[in-house]
Structures are given as C-alpha cells and as structure tokens.
C-alpha cells in the first residue's frame, strides 16, 4: 500500500529560504522601503507574467534565450519578467493619464532569467528599483544618489562609495578626439578598468586606437585627488563647460551641501553598458568589500517608455540586487547580533494548566513581546531543545505551584540566569532585563 | 523615422497596482506579518517555478487546466505554483533534517491559476498562509484560531466570526447513521447551507437520503444558542464523547479563557472541501460583510507531506486571501483616514536656493518626516497641483527672503492654513500641529 514518493527537489538556480535567511531578507527590504518612503518614493506592483511582445519588443534578440517564455492555455505568447525596468516602462505608458509627473516609484519584486547557474547565478532573484521619471534635473539626479547613500547607512553599511560619471561629457570628449565612431568599443574597454587596472586598459585601447588617443582616454578616466579637480579635468578635456558638465557640478554641489559628498566619487571610468543611459551613471561599492562589485547601480536615461508611447519620459533611477546585499551583510558580520524572531517560549510543564500558559503568553504579547506556548507537555529537555534550535532567548517555566501563587519563573535560556517567583505585573520589566537589546523598549 | 508603438497591455486576470492601492496592500500584509511574528510564526519563501511533477504529483488531474505549465529552455517540465500549500509540503520534506518540530511558518507570496476571469477571478494573486506542523494538539488548533481573530482585530476588523467544526465528529455521526458511504455527497450538500438556507439543504439531502436521515443531518448542522449547547448536541448525535469531541471542547475552552470566544462560533455545517482536512475546520466571516464569503479558512490535516516523505507531519493552518481583504476594507471604509505616503513637499520657488531646499528636507527627514523636494522651479500652481495629486498634506514654501532670515513658511495644503516665518528649530513641532494624525509622534 506504500505509495511512490516524489523527490522533493527544486529547479537549479531556484532557492528555498529557511526562516533565518528569510527574516534577514525581509529586514533588509523593509529597511530599504523605509528609506524610499522617507524620500517620497511610492510603491507599485506589476504582473510576473506578461505578453512576450510587451517584454521583448518586436524582435527579442539576445536576451531571448534567458527568458522563461511559453504559450499559455489560451494560446497567448507570454513570458516571465526578467527585470523591473521594462514592466515599469509599460506601466508608465499604460497609466500615463492616471498618474502625475514627476513620478517617483519603487518596486521590489522577483525577476526570472535562465542564467548559467555554473557562474553562481540565480534564475529567480529579487530586485529593488527606484526611479524618478518626468523630470530631467540635477535635483532628481542628486536625490537618487542621496537615497543610495542613505539606504546603505540605514543598513549599517556606512563605508560605501558611489562612483559616478556622465555619459554626455564622455561622449563629447570622444567627439573632440574625433573617435565618436569607436565609442562603443571605448566604453566597453574603459568599463573594465576596475577589474584589469589602468595599464591593461591602455593596452586594450591601443589595439584599435593610436597611442595618443589611448593616453588621452587613460588620462580622462583617472579620478584626480578630489571631485572638483576631476570635474575640472574632464570638462577641459571635453572642450570646456556645457550643460552636461554643469549638471555634474550641480549634483556634486548638492552632495557637498547635504553632507553626503564623502561617499561620492566622480570616477570617469564608470560607463554602465552601452545603449540605455544618456546622462549621469553610477555604481556603488562597499569600501570593505569592493571585490563583490557594485551593490547598487543606475543612471539617467533619455526616454523610458518610447516602445509603448510617444510621451517623452526622461528619468533617473537605480537598482539594488538583494542577493549581493545579503552576501555582503553576511560577510561583514552585520545583522550578526540578531534580534530573535521569537522572544519568549512559555513551557508546557503540566497539561492541565494549558489555558493558564496561553493567558500568560497573551499578557506578554500585549506588552509587546513575541511569545509562543509549547503545544505539548513533552519532556522539558525537548522543550529546551526546541527553544535552542529556534533561537528563543527566554523561557517562562511554571508548574502548578507557581500558577497557584500567581507568579512565573523566567529563565534566560542562553546564560541559564533564573528569575524565580516573579509576579505577573513585574514579568514584563524582568523580561526586559533578560533581553538586553530590549532596554527601554517595552510599552 | 517614427517607430511602431507596442500597445502597453497586460494579460487578462493580471493586474498593475498603482501607488495608492499598493500602499494599502503593503500595509495589510505588514499588519498580518506583525501578528504572525508576535505569535512565534517565522517566514519562509519558495520558488514561483517548480518541477510540474512536484507541484501536481504523478497524475495532475483536474487542476491541470488551471496551471501555467511549460517546458523550460533546458527541456524540463515546469509549472508556476498555484498555491502555497504544495510548496510547503515539498519544503518540509526537503528540509526535514534542517528544521525542528513543531514548525510554525507563515508564507506570503504570489500564486497563479488560469481561472475563468469572467467570474471576477484573478490569475495572479497573493496568499498569506500560516501553519503549525509536527504537533496534533488542541493548543495548536486553538493558536491558529487565535491568530485569525487577532489578525482581523489588528486590521480594525474586530466584528469578525470564525465558524468552526470538526470533520472527525461529523464523520462519526454519519457512521452512526449508517451512511458513511454517502459522506462525500453529504459534505458537499451541507457546505451549501450558508448560501441556500436550511430548507433547500434538506431538500437536496432527500434526493439521495431518507427523510429521517435528512432531518437528523439538518438537526446536526444547526448551531444552538451557544457553543456549549452545540457541542453537547453534536457529541450526543455522534454517539457520545470521544477524542475528537474532547479536542473541540478543549479548543473552545481555551478560546473562552483567553477572551476570544465571542468571535468563535461552533457551526457544524462548515465542512471545507472533501479530502484534505481530518480534524477541526474553520471559515471566517466579517459580521458587516458576510456576503463576500470567508476571508480566512483552513483546518487540521493528518499528514502534510506524504507525497514527498515517509515522515508523518500532522498540522493545522489557515490561509488569508489578500484580495478579499482589500475589497472588504475598502467596502467598510477602513483605512479611509489614510496616513499620507509623503507628508511634506518642499516647493522649489527659486532655483538658486535648491541646495537650501534639500537641506531643509533632510533636516525634516531626520526628525522622522517623509519629505520630498519638487525637482524643478516650475510655476507654483503646478507644484500645488502635484502635491494635491500625490496627496501631500503640507508644503514648505520659502523664497530668498525666508532663506536669508533662516525661517520657513509652512502651509497645510488642504485647509490652506499658513504658519509663516517659522524658525527651523520650531518647524518640526509646527509640522506636527499641521499633521493631526502625527500628534506626539515626532522623535
């Protein structure tokens, strides 16, 4: 009569999250959301599944192979979203008349790509995007940088550097050199500087440029001693001040005047891909973990939704990859002093007092604690073991005698410190003493 | 040169959520999470996409047509999850050795079904499940009921009734009548009582049962004046007390002794489907909106993960449908006194003072307000209009003169109440006065 057992496997590149990991992920997301909201960004959501035509445009092209694409039961050609930018463009075009401009949105959601998992890539992962569309201003550019810096500070990752550059200034510099036609190759090469170093970058450039042009580019992309000096140099190399260099200057001034300039470096080697961005571009590196790469990147684009509408929608935005952030926080030991997910376990010592145990639990919850009652009167060692595995720091342990006397015994399950015969009125205060991170938080 | 425009359409049964709607959805979810956490439930997450074999079991059967199922680029037969129960079963089987029992988890996530959209059904929707597995006890049954009641109270939906019954007691009653072989039809018919009324239920029963049996069933399923009387009646009709009736009694006692009994009704006509549940079952109705049906349902099952493991995992759990809850809160006018998503707009009156505007905004954010700076020095009427559309209640309006004097003008944009020449030190306190829901909240 035994039935066949199906192996409980999951797809490669997809993941389960057990409570300890999921709690950290939720805490990071909720911290980010609080910062976004504090700066006036509001949330949206869009479907996981969309028409393939909408997500890929007419052609599709190279991305195609990485897309989860299929025909649904109604014969429609559908795909799972592979980023949050394309759905946002479609969203802005579709809801243009219900919205207002500038529109500041954030969007946290799962995206799907059939990546090669051998490179440690995931096929399902969470992105957190925030953008300001409908305004082409230094104020908006600056605000995105500001939110990035403040987000990492809120995550206790204050040692962070946002490296920014301006695609317009770079392009004018290349025009000045008379090598605009090679700009794609130049951008692609320069983008490698952080990985391969300046000498190697120069060597690669000389493969398709003259030594003089390579030298000028190497000079252009090297940050100077401070942002002002870098700005002055690239402005001169690009042929003098113009709208783009003035925009950069204003953004850097705003950073100074709001005190975030120590986290901002003007780094002309930052290019961010080839087509999409038209203005400021930026990447974010953790000073203590530069090797994991950019944890938050983005830039200004000229027109978000031209595939779907003739409305012109310039914007600026940035995207955080949750996985890289989790890895970084883990590596740096942040979040290591974890607030426990459950604070108190009420032991079930004698089954006949079950309702009393539930009353005690409920009383403590009203005082703001997270509390559970062990559901069976199992051996006390099993209940201790449960508390340990779940990381519950305090136990309420009382049998018939304590219940008769209207008191409880409280035990710090880690230090084994006991507080016996505590009256119910006093229990919240004593609990607070047993939970060090709690000091002063009981309401 | 104009390119073809792709219509920014979305799939039928799928939805975009604009900020106002998304904010409410997030607030509901975060309220539910807080309650779950307070009762010791911890979060997990699982993939949206899984092996079809894992989600559907060997056969598949009727559910099949509603599943988004396809072959991925690696030739695997995959499906998008259609609920959170099957992935939870697979999760428990796969991580059995990493977990502890009892395991109390909640899971909030999107699920997908190719439902007939003409019946107002959605093809992508969010479920919030919470379960306790690894213990077959009254304490766990009760705790699920308790979390349900407390969840709705936390959402300001205190006028709620959880209707519960016990499948075991009902089955024994049918055995006693000698009609166990008709139990599927009986359960299916009885389940309709709330929609069609008692007389019609009896008529349907007599189509396949004797008048006497139909009368006995109608008598069994009618709640009495109070839960004790109902319990006494069904216990007698089932042949006297046994383990199942004692379990029900203990659960009801716990409800009394923790003060949630006024929200719990023993209603023997609740059956919840045919196969899955084996013990207590429940549905939750809003007293002011019974017609929308159950907003939270569940019950006890004998073995969660038998498809994937020989480990025996009894459990009890419940599931909240977010959409129904949103509809109810909307209908009842809850959440209507909305806390605004952004509290303060700093107007950009003169572009030359942009950095000052950003400084003021940052100062107010440090005081705990949600603030944005209008990114362009547009006509003041356009900035007013932006604030109105976004629902921002207060404006900070200052030109060169105020900036020189180190003061700000604050304006309640709804009442047009002005506070002029407020010093920066005083601005947080004055803002608090202008934001009534804020009283006493500034840190």
Describe the structure.
The structure is a homodimer of 443-residue chains. Chain A has helices at 19-38, 52-56, 85-94, 138-154, 167-177, 183-190, 193-196, 198-205, 211-221, 227-237, 243-257, 322-331, 354-366, 380-390, 400-405, 424-434, and strands spanning 42-43, 49-51, 69-71, 77-80, 103-112, 124-133, 160-166, 264-266, 277-286, 296-301, 315-321, 344-346, 371-373, 394-397, 407-412, 418-423. In chain A, the strands form 3 sheets. An 8-stranded mixed sheet of chain A has the order 1-5-6-11-10-9-7-8. Chain A has a 5-stranded mixed sheet with strand order 13-12-14-15-16. Chain A contains 16 helices and 16 strands. Chain A is α+β, with helices and mostly antiparallel strands and 443 residues long.
Descriptive key words:
eight-stranded mixed β-sheet; homodimer; 16 helices; five-stranded mixed β-sheet; alpha+beta; 39% helix; elongated; 443 residues
What's the SSE blueprint?
The structure is a homodimer of 443-residue chains.
Chain A: H1 19-38, E1 42-43, E2 49-51, H2 52-56, E3 69-71, E4 77-80, H3 85-94, E5 103-112, E6 124-133, H4 138-154, E7 160-166, H5 167-177, H6 183-190, H7 193-196, H8 198-205, H9 211-221, H10 227-237, H11 243-257, E8 264-266, E9 277-286, E10 296-301, E11 315-321, H12 322-331, E12 344-346, H13 354-366, E13 371-373, H14 380-390, E14 394-397, H15 400-405, E15 407-412, E16 418-423, H16 424-434
Parallel strand pairs in A: 1-5, 7-8, 12-13, 12-14
Antiparallel strand pairs in A: 2-4, 3-4, 5-6, 6-11, 7-9, 9-10, 10-11, 14-15, 15-16
Helix pairs in contact in A: 1-4, 4-11, 8-9, 10-11
